[in-house]
Amino acid sequence: MIRSMPNTPSRLGRGVLSISAGTHADASLMTQARDILGSAGTVVDIPEDQVDALSAVSGSGPAYVFYLAEAMAAAGVELGLDPGLAKILATETVAGAGYMLAEQDADPTALRRAVTSPNGTTEQAIATFDRLDLPVIIAAGARAASNRAQAITEELDS
């Protein structure tokens, strides 16, 4: 048996799909699984005991990005933009940034720094995110998702 965890961008061929070998899955079967699932996106091999962590990062991850887009659009409306325009701006900005991240050798830190001018508007936004501990909030959400994934697995196993 092989366990796989896809995410929703798989329907566009841009997903992340994990595979974990069961006790009876040999190298040939794993290769076959990689070949079949590869059309849906990037396939990563992970040990079974890391599936819950993967689920928290990439299984739930698209919802985190969608949530960010929602928040960006809402901020635009709060700043006086038309709701339709705010949605377009947020959606296309997130999609474009995603394409940049998908480029070979893309480094999220370097990409962020390239947009962050000293004493500029982006620097002020990032400083606010840091002051509010956004990375801590994201890590806490991922831990909660991982804990729930583990509980679901335990419920299914019982």
Extended strand count: 3
Architecture per CATH nomenclature, i.e. the level-2 architecture of the largest domain: 3-Layer(aba) Sandwich
The total domain count is 3
The poorly predicted ranges are none
Structure description:
The protein is mainly alpha-helical and 158 residues long. The chain has 3 domains: 2-54, 3-Layer(aba) Sandwich (Rossmann fold), CATH 3.40.50.720; 60-106, Orthogonal Bundle (ProC C-terminal domain-like fold), CATH 1.10.3730.10; 116-158. 64% of the residues lie in helices and 10% in strands. Strands 1-2-3 form a 3-stranded mixed sheet. Helix 3 runs antiparallel to helix 4. The protein is elongated, with a radius of gyration of 19 Å. It starts with a strand and ends with a helix.
Question: Topology of this structure?
Answer:
Blueprint lengths: L1 E4 L9 E7 L5 H11 L3 E5 L5 H9 L1 H18 L4 H20 L5 H8 L5 H11 L2 H24 L1
Parallel strand pairs: 2-3
Antiparallel strand pairs: 1-2
Helix pairs in contact: 2-7, 3-4
Characteristics of this structure?
elongated, ProC C-terminal domain-like fold, Rossmann fold, 3 domains, three-stranded mixed beta sheet, mainly alpha, 158 residues, 7 helices
